Amino acid sequence: MKDKFLWCLKQMPSVIFITLGAAMAAAALEIFLIPNSIIDGGLNGVSIILNKIFGGSLSIYIIVLNIPFLILGWRQLGKKFLVKAAYGMIVFSVLLEFFSTFEEVTDDILLALVYGGLLLGVGVGLVIKEGGCLDGTEAVAITLSKNVSLSVGQIVFIFNIFIYGSAIFVFGIDRALYSLLTYFITFKIIDIVSEGLEQAKAALIITSKEEQISGEIFKRLGRTVTIISGKGMVEQSEKSILYTVITRLEIQELRDIVQNADVSSFVAITDVTDVIGNHIKKIPDIEK
What we know:
By secondary structure, the chain is of the alpha+beta class. The chain folds into two domains: about 1-195, no CATH class; about 200-270, Alpha-Beta Plaits, CATH 3.30.70.120. Helices cover about 65% and strands about 10% of the residues. The protein contains ten helices and four strands; from the N terminus they run ααααααααβαββαβ. It has helices spanning about 1-35, 40-55, 60-75, 80-100, 110-130, 135-145, 150-170, 175-195, 210-220, 250-260; strands at about 200-205, 225-230, 240-245, 265-270. A four-stranded antiparallel β-sheet has the order 2-3-1-4, covered by helices on one side. The chain starts with a helix and ends in a 16-residue tail after the last strand. The relative contact order is 0.13.
């Protein structure tokens, strides 16, 4: 009982930031962007288009469209991702209904897209930084990036090109172009807040359980691992140095893998400016 209480207490900062991020994203859409016919990217953008065409509740569209991708995210990124993403999306959907009763802040299209994009970027960035997401597109992009030579960010961008192209027929070409401009602002802010969806991270893991950890990294993340032999300076004991490249969204899953296998491991995670070659392998059909 005590352990569960401590675990819940430990998760509170993450819950608070996800709630805050979801609130900021919902406010950005309902009081800046949607009233000015500017759409978000990803599945949320699809939901806004469907809501414009068929009416009904925007929140319901968002939840229904994201359910399959939440399941996909759980298979690729683990149960913690599923819980955090599901919580973020539920809070986001509820707050969309809440903020829909508010008056729009401005009808100036440029002010709306700039400040709406900034607020949306900060909100989404906070959620991603805590290991969740408000849009299932990222989970799809991570999965596809394991089998193609495109990065997560590039795949998301390709998705959004089709979505904004579709928006031309619903909102007009000028609003679709404004929406695309908002997307660039939002994505840049996400990059600043959460260090980017597609930004590669290099992980150095010093451990004595190299086979177990490298096996779990390949099984759960689909990442190859380079194993280097080493020796501790103080203890003079033989150690293995594991080197792998992951995405920002996979850092928490990597931490869980290492901590569950060897609590004495040392992990260093650094930014990678560019990746040449294929460091991602297709995961074989093995039971997870």
